[in-house]
Structure formats: C-alpha cells, structure tokens
Design goal:
It is found in: Cell membrane. It comes from Tumebacillus algifaecis. It is a single chain. The protein has one domain: Up-down Bundle (Growth Hormone, Chain: A). The protein contains 19 helices and no strands. The protein is globular and about 50 Å long. The protein starts with a helix and ends in a 21-residue tail after the last helix. It has about 425 residues and is mainly α. It is about 75% helix and about 0% strand.
C-alpha cells in the first residue's frame, strides 16, 4: 500500500502537468496567426521584431523566475505564470499596434519562464523520489504530446471559424483561449511539491550560484545543450515562420494548410506517446543525432528545391518528426547531469543562453526581412534557408554523451564556490 501511495504521488503530478500543458497550449489563432497579425496592422518585419520581444523577455526573466521555483516550489511558480499568461491574452484581445503586440509577447514570454525548468524539475524530482528517474524521457514525451491534442482541434476549428479574417471571429477565438487558460489555473492548484523539492529553500542567490557551479563543472551538459538549441532555433523558430509561404509556393493551396497541420499534429501525438518504444530500441544519443542530421538535410533541401510539392511535404514531415522527438530526448539527457536542489535554476540559466541564440539568429533574420535580400520571395527564402542550414550543421557538430553519474555533484552542491 505504501508503495502504491508513493507511486501515485509522481503519477498525480505527471497527470496534472499533462492536462495543464494541454489547456495552456490551446491557441485557436495558430492556423491563421500570421494572417491575424497582418489584419491587425503588422508587417512581416513587425512579426519578427515582436518575436524578438518575446525572446528578450525570456532572457531577462528566466533566472529570476527559476529561483522562485526552487525557492517556493513549482506550484507557486505555475500559479504566477498562469495569471501572467492570462494577462497576455487580455492585451492581445485589444492589440492593434506593434507596441501592444510587443507588450503581449513580453507578458507571454514572462509567463513561459515560470514554467520553463520548473516543469522538468517537478517531474524529474517526483520520479526520482520513487526511484523512477529512468522513465523521464517517456514521461516528457507523453507530456509533450499534450500540445498536439488541442492543436488538431484548434487548427481545424480556428481556420474554419476565422475563414473571413473578420475582427469578431478573431475575438471569439481569443476568448476561447482565455477560457482554456482559466482551466489551467484550476489544474495547477492541485500540484503537490515533492519532498525532495521542498527540502531546498535556500536564498535565491544560492540557487544561482549552485546552477552556475553545475554548468561550470559539466562541460558535456553545455555541449548537449548546444546540440539541441542551435539545431532547434533555425529549424523550428526561423523555418517555421516561413513554412507556410514555402509550402504554398511549392504548390499546396492555402485551404489545405489547416488539414496538413492537423495531420502533422496527429502524427506528432502518436510519436510522443510511443517514445518509450523508440528509446527501448535506440539510444537517446542515437535518436538525438539522427534527428539533428535529418533537420540539416531537410532545410538544406528546402534551400535548393522550392517548386516541388512532394519535396516540400517531405521536408515538413521530417522536420515535424524531429521537432517532436528532440525535446523529450534532450530533457532526459540534460536532467541526468543536473543534481537536485537547484535544478529549475540550472535549467533556467541554460535557457538564458538559449535566448541569446534566439536573439542572434532570429535577429539576423529580422534584419534580412527589414532591409530585404533578393528581388523575390523565393530568392529571399533561399538565403534565409541557406543560413539556417549552415547554423544547424554547426549545432550537429557538438558531441552528445550520456551522464555517467547524475549524483556526482550532489554532495558538493552546497559548497559551490
């Protein structure tokens, strides 16, 4: 009975995080988001500068909010993040200028930082408390799959409902998203902080010192992080912004984009739920390397072939698979390097570096969009995709290894210099 009770503690938190992730990811505007921005008066460059405001907010607030999670627990962090996220949606409801859109994105980025690192730390500590840390990748895969469930429905419904791109249609979709966030607020109230997490309540500056110490003493963690993030940003954050015009230019009608995204979300959901099956047959390192190389080859292909629908669909499919698998694989490997106590802060410190690369790479693309490269959309995308392919190649050069001992820094964390 005691064993069942112990296991139910981790399972309870995993279930709550799954459903909170599901409702928190509901965005009915997603399939027509760029069109929504254009209807509200933003330009292509404005969309990218707005995205940069989100990245800048994440970079500034990542560590302070991470220390809140380590200091007061994941539950408090989730509650604050949810309330700020709801505020962001309210601003978006009225946004009609670049300034208001940037404010909405700053609030959205701030909200994300209250969940970033804290979710992984909560799940890992809950599993570790029950001797189930080796289940991390499978669990994170299932939690990651939560974003695809609403994506399927939201993509189909959102595109259909806002087919006229009318203001009243936009506002209803935003209000529905706000209602979903209210459900998430109710869910995070039920989170139970694990005992291991509750035992670490040092001064926030101590958590930052501990996190820096872990990073300094674990170069393999940095290499793993670089392999993940330097591949992710150009293949997802940048390529994803130009995915729709690339598919359309290759021959896919606009009305079929919603169907394609819904099918992609369904496939991603299936893969996320079957990640345990994959990791039982292939190592986490092998899968991370294969998806990284696949991302490079697909973006490189898109650089030179932009008039074939079959090629475009293949590029979309492979990148969607890579995007689905890489984060839970990275999460499993990264948490193996990080000792308990300042886990959320350490992950937040890494996210700051991630935000720096966001600013560097996305900022470069924003400059390209602002000043223009190439006389046509096709030639501009060729330059952008070529730069992305080169950056992805650099990211793949960073070696990936499995941590030998997750606890080897555990006894030294309290005496970090």
């Amino acid at each position: 009975m005691n064993e069942l009770q112990r296991r139910s503690g981790a399972d309870h938190n995993i279930k709550i995080v799954f459903w909170a992730t599901l409702f928190g990811s509901v965005n009915f505007l997603e399939p027509i988001l760029t069109l929504f921005y254009f209807e509200r008066g933003l330009s292509e460059a404005g969309v990218l500068w707005m995205t940069l405001s989100w990245c800048l907010a994440v970079m500034i607030f990542e560590v302070p909010t991470g220390t809140i999670a380590d200091r007061y627990g994941a539950k408090v962090s989730f509650l604050i993040g949810t309330l700020i996220g709801m505020s962001s949606t309210v601003v978006l409801f009225f946004a009609d200028s670049l300034l208001l859109f940037c404010l909405a994105n700053v609030l959205s980025g701030l909200a994300v930082t209250f969940f970033s690192g804290a979710e992984e730390a909560l799940v890992y500590e809950s599993l570790k408390e029950e001797g189930r840390a080796d289940e991390m990748s499978g669990v994170m895969g299932k939690i990651s799959s939560a974003i695809y469930v609403p994506a399927i429905a939201a993509t189909l419904f959102g595109a259909f409902w806002a087919r006229d791109l009318a203001e009243d249609q936009f506002r209803l979709l935003i209000l529905l998203g706000l209602a979903a966030q209210a459900v998430r607020l109710f869910l995070v109230l039920r989170v139970v902080n694990p005992k291991q997490e509750d035992s670490f309540r040092e001064n926030p500056f101590q958590h930052v010192k501990n996190g820096l110490y872990v990073i300094k003493k674990t170069p393999d963690l940095i290499k793993l992080f670089l392999n993940f993030t330097v591949v992710f940003i150009p293949s997802v954050a940048v390529f994803g912004k130009f995915e729709q015009p690339y598919l359309n230019h290759s021959g896919l009608p606009v009305e079929w984009l919603g169907v394609l995204y819904a099918v992609g979300s369904a496939c991603a959901l299936f893969l996320s739920r079957r990640l345990d099956w994959l990791t039982a047959r292939f190592s986490h390192v092998t899968l991370l390397r294969v998806t990284g190389i696949g991302s490079f080859l697909m973006v490189l292909t898109a650089t030179f072939v932009q008039d074939s629908l079959a090629v475009a669909l293949t590029v979309y499919g492979v990148l969607r698979i890579s995007r689905t698998l890489r984060y839970p694989l990275y999460s499993h490997l990264a948490n193996g390097y990080i000792p308990s106590g300042s886990r959320a802060t350490t992950l937040s410190l890494l996210s700051i570096v991630d935000s720096f690369f966001d600013l560097l790479i996305i900022g470069g693309v924003a400059l390209i969009a602002t000043f223009g490269l190439g006389a046509t959309t096709s030639s501009s995308m060729t330059v952008i995709f070529g730069v992305c392919a080169f950056v992805i190649l650099l990211g793949n050069l960073a070696p990936v290894r499995v941590a030998k001992k997750e606890t080897q820094l555990e006894s030294r964390i309290d005496v970090a210099p």
